[in-house]
Design brief:
single chain; 229 residues; alpha+beta; four-stranded antiparallel beta sheet
Amino acid sequence: MDEGIGTKEVLEVIKAKKINISVITLLFTFLSIIYCLKIAVPIYEYNALIRIPAGIESKQVNSLVEILKNDIKPDYMLEDKYNKLTKVNLLRDTSLIKITWEGTSPKEAESQGLIYTNNAMERIDKIIVLEQKKEWENSAFWIIEKDLENIKYNFADNNINESLSFLENEIQLQKKEMFFQKAELIKSSYVLDRPVRPQILFSVIGTFFFSLILSSTFFIGKYYIKNNR
């Protein structure tokens, strides 16, 4: 009957093979350090917050977020897979859109991220204006504006025109408030000199313990198989 392997035997195997286990563990840890410092491409992260005007409905805000999310492409579709848009999120219970851009240097991440952010705000503004134009044309103010234009055109009377000037000014104020709402960049983060990837300390410690466990398991398993044939 197979009784497995006891704790005492496990400790004896580890003690007997401690040099082998140490060499394997240190070798993989050293390779991890080499990979992080010499091979892996350092990735830096730029973050920005765009505020959508308060008058925009949440449904439209969500639609704007989805439009920007379409700019996130898989690596095989990109000319440069290391400098790219990685995240577009709507912060919970706000009208703030968070944009995350990655680059291979702090300068690259910040400059390219800022270019994309400004471009995104221009696109958002165009969409907002189109929606506002539709709302304006369906509002009573638009009807009044057209009626005033017809009155001024058909009745060339200075007294009438002066009387209508107040209404025209009020309508223009309403129009300005509606059409001059724009997306606003409220935060453009400073890109740290330390890359977000690879995380050298985490990678080295993780590799050390993984190699230690894996090599120990290998020799224990080998001992078990040998003694249970």
